[in-house]
Design goal:
The structure is a homotetramer. Chain A has one domain: I/LWEQ domain (Up-down Bundle), CATH 1.20.1410. Chain A is built from 7 helices and no strands. The longest helix of chain A has 27 residues. Chain A is globular and about 55 Å long. At the A-D interface, helix 1 and helix 2 of A face helix 1, helix 3, helix 4 and helix 5 of D.
């Protein structure tokens, strides 16, 4: 069994996840610029989650290149990852409307941790080689855990931490971060 | 006519079915942890249906490998399967909001029976060989029928039975279950 | 430019059209069997439109096999077809809630005529050969025109005519219908 | 890394963007022809945005043919383009309900400018060759800027300008426009 169809299905699911999030941006009733103001935090969390799904898509792509054939275990590990990622639109919507509240902020981080854990499982199922992005992956996990904790101190710190992790992935590999 | 485009179209439809179900998880108005509580049954039925669609995707993939070319009959049989599967988001939503009620629970099982029947028809149209998952397939059918019946005794029994069937598909093939 | 990506994009759009129609099946508030009753006409129009999109997908697939390369004209003709088909979920929803009313019934037929016209244009752009389904195509056009007219006499006649056309496409090619 | 999966993912996202816009066409409560009247501007903006996404899909297709391999920069530049395009359903919905108002009209143009800018970046990342559609691209940018300005004079002028740009892309390449 080749990787082609697993990639096609995953691409489909990721494309839908990344796009249906935009449905949370409800069209305002008024037509003034000010009517867009309440949408700003929802827009920013949308942009953040778009970027996170984009990172997953990119890493997923590289990871599946390492797989020579797909067995039953890889398929379930992949479905497990897609499941947690499919909840990101929900967590994004809740965070966007409550970005100053502890639980929505913490829950977003918990979901990112679950997705990251599912990715680790998929990676270990596919290859024993270490990922090129080993350091970034570990750093992300630590930041997410910290953000979940900080959500109960000041959720804004967590929001900034989520954004920092997303930005970190833009830094090219050959620049050492540790 | 090759199987490529039939697979691509089916993958697309299955990817959308599996993802739009998450839209039933409406974002709560409050921001406390307790506000997520009413969503728990909806989340659990979502997870169940996600797993069921995942199983169909996996089996569908293996089945189409057995097909050498696609004729008109296979195409209609495939469309018939996709039709019943496309109703799963609806049945999932109804069950999620009424998991202790007889009819929503029974209807979920009836739909799973119809989808399973459509899968049998597709299988017979494609190949005369028996499936590797023959035993699991038959056991699933019996459990679904039992669950539809039990929905009028105690719907919780049916819900547990649906979950058990989904879990059964995780057991690797080489472990004998009968 | 090969046909691969045009097929992939069209498959994607058709897969989404066929699946988002199911969102019109709103989950009932009650949990009794009777609560599903108002959904019956909506379910039936959904089944009808699902079948119609399925026919288009099938024919589209065969048509693009005849194309050796894709030029700008083919691309626009294809986009034109997808545009009219993308309105089917809207027309289906309006018909489903008003299947005894003249205008929703007529509008459904008018949209089918527009889609059929767009398909004819695409066909002529791709190939000068006659389609295998020439007779069925013409018969469909006549029936749709008749249905639009009948919508102002008795919409139920039109609904039955739409269903008959969809059923006609199941008849294998080698059985002569004229 | 080949272009195949980047194309597949982009096609998926573009197919979803082009299709979910139709969800803004809410089914009217009445069943008379007159009930469709308030939907006319929403329908027209839908048709406009459908055409614009179609143009992007077409150009995107040609652009990626020029790419021999996909590096990290191309991937991010592509994701950046998809991000701005994913906001088109929102801007379309706001414009459709407020096509005589300045800000919704201006915002639509600003978004088109951002998407066009993202496309320029992607193009420069992929190839140093000039695009075949260089003139049309530049003309579009000028028209969008003019439309944003005109939105505060008379939004209808802007709407007509948006439509003119979309129509311009139908003109075959070999007819000189300058």
């Amino acid at each position: 069994m080749s990787t082609t169809r697993l990639e096609a299905f995953s691409d489909g699911v990721l494309a839908i996840i990344i796009t249906i999030m935009v449905l949370e941006l409800k069209i305002p009733h008024g037509s003034a610029l000010i009517d867009l103001q309440p949408l700003i935090p929802i827009f920013l969390t949308y942009a953040l989650s778009f970027q996170i799904i984009g990172i997953y898509w990119n890493n997923h792509h590289h990871l599946l290149h390492a797989a020579k054939e797909i067995n039953s275990k890889i398929m379930w590990a992949n479905l497990n990852l897609l499941f947690w990622l499919s909840l990101i639109p929900f967590a994004t919507g809740w965070l966007g409307e409550n970005y100053t509240q502890s639980w929505p902020t913490a829950m977003y981080g918990i979901l990112l941790l679950l997705a990251a854990g599912a990715y680790q499982i998929l990676q270990k199922t596919i290859t024993k080689e270490k990922s090129d992005n080993e350091t970034k992956g570990k750093l992300s996990l630590i930041c997410y855990m910290l953000a979940v904790f900080l959500a109960f101190v000041n959720p804004i710190f967590s929001d900034l931490l989520y954004a920092s992790v997303a930005l970190m992935w833009f830094i090219p590999k050959h620049i050492k971060i540790s």
